[in-house]
Amino acid sequence: MALMNCLRAKGPMPRHQLAAASRLSAAELTRALKSARQMGVVAYAGEPDVAAQAGTLLVLTGRPLPPPRKVTPVARENTPHFQPLLDAWGISRPARRQA
Cβ atoms within 10 A of the Cβ of 40, count? Predict the structure, then answer.
């Protein structure tokens, strides 16, 4: 969203200016650009005719972001599973006290 908001507010710009303007780290910008280009939201100006270079402008394509994917978390037990570790270390668990 930071990438798209920056391009929307300031217009087409090369990658190095976009990094400074969006305040994303190099790794974050790389991931954001990869995802945005795969979704068709951002493209290099003149693409596919022009090979991307350092000064090539990045532009918004006008396509909206697809809706976020719904990911259901994996169901798991809420109890810790330390027994294999305790077995490896040769530690036995104390017996539960009965009231």
Answer: 13
